[in-house]
Design brief:
It is a single chain. By secondary structure, this protein is of the alpha/beta class. Helices cover about 35% and strands about 25% of the residues. It contains 11 helices and 13 strands. The strands form 3 sheets. It has an 8-stranded mixed beta sheet, sandwiched between helices. Strands 7-8-11 form a 3-stranded antiparallel beta sheet. The longest helix has 20 residues.
């Protein structure tokens, strides 16, 4: 049996992270990056969110893969290097192994420690498959190391779960351009990506403000995380969760609202918040099939093959797209 390789490229710069959080809290419109929602507890809370009845993306995407997996396998190159971006527990990619028959599996996440157990388990199930875990913050720059495999071998970049929605349209285009370059020079390489689509606003909002309050807990868990990093004195009782759909920008927004006038302090600084003033914690952009297809082509990909949960892709709730790098 082969043994997975591991390579940690990303290393936290704690001073830079602290400065980034303080700058966001101090801005005229306070904000933080959604990456700060995912500390150890936040990651477990998000896993719980995916099980909620209101949260349609995970189960809808899974149904698309189940229904259209054979058609996807006919599009992607056989015996390719499957590069799983934001792999987490690796379950989504592993479900494709039998259909896609990859030559090599490369799991990418911010920390190889997140990947180690999953890859070691997968290796026992697929003892002849080359596997590698790479600790990389690809949200900043998708530059794969040479150890990921030869760029002359065909590559399938896999980015499921609609995580592309956390990028602004400008950031999404930059990411897709990086992904196009990361496909390498081999013919038939490309990107397989999950995209959440515009739909009824009430359904969208419910997915980010569930009746059980799990998403609210996920959002509010940011506060003790900031306190640990910054040394601030944010109190859970002072803040409540807000999710809303912004039709102008076609995005769901998550905010934390102050319950009263208050002052947040940290070593060397402070910030006053008025009652109902917000900290903007996350965006999740929603696309149409046509608009995201155009974005892929702007990034250098061919016009994508599209699968949705509807007979007519234009009326789907969620899409999976295969875009060849040409």
């Amino acid at each position: 049996m082969k043994t997975p390789e591991f390579l940690q490229i990303h290393h936290d710069d704690h001073a830079a992270i602290r400065d980034e959080l303080i700058q966001g809290l101090s801005a005229p419109k306070a904000h933080t990056s959604p990456k700060f929602l995912y500390d150890a507890l936040g990651s477990r809370l998000f896993e719980a969110i995916t099980e909620l009845p209101e949260y349609y993306p995970t189960r809808t995407e899974a149904a698309i893969f189940k229904t259209h997996g054979a058609a996807m396998a006919a599009c992607v190159p056989p015996h390719a290097t499957l590069i799983d971006l934001g792999a987490g527990n690796c379950n989504k990619a592993a479900a494709l192994f039998d259909r896609f028959a990859p030559k090599r599996y490369v799991a990418v996440d911010i920390s190889v420690d997140f990947l180690r157990g999953a890859l070691e388990c997968l290796q026992r199930q697929y003892p002849e498959l080359d596997m590698m875990g790479i600790g990389l913050d690809f949200s900043s720059s998708l530059r794969l190391p040479a150890q990921a495999g030869s760029p002359q071998d065909p590559r399938i970049l896999f980015y499921p779960g609609s995580s592309i929605g956390n990028f602004t349209p400008e950031q999404a285009l930059s990411f897709l351009q990086d992904a196009h370059q990361a496909c390498g020079s081999a013919s038939h390489s490309g990107l397989l990506i999950g995209v959440d689509l515009v739909k009824d606003h009430a359904e969208l909002q419910a997915a980010y403000d569930d009746a059980l309050g799990v998403t609210a807990a996920f959002n509010r868990n940011l506060l003790p995380h900031i306190n640990r990093v910054v040394g601030s004195d944010l109190r859970l009782a002072d803040w409540r969760h807000l999710a809303l759909f912004n039709p102008k920008d076609s995005r769901i927004e998550m905010h934390l609202l102050a319950n009263r006038d208050l002052t947040v302090t940290w070593p060397g600084g402070s910030r006053d918040f008025a009652k109902d003033e917000r900290i903007h914690t996350e965006n999740s952009y929603k696309w149409t099939v046509a608009s995201f297809s155009e974005l892929l082509q702007q990034a250098g990909f061919a016009k994508p093959q599209v699968w949705t949960d509807a007979h007519d892709p234009a009326h789907g709730r969620f899409a999976v797209m295969w875009a060849s790098a040409r």
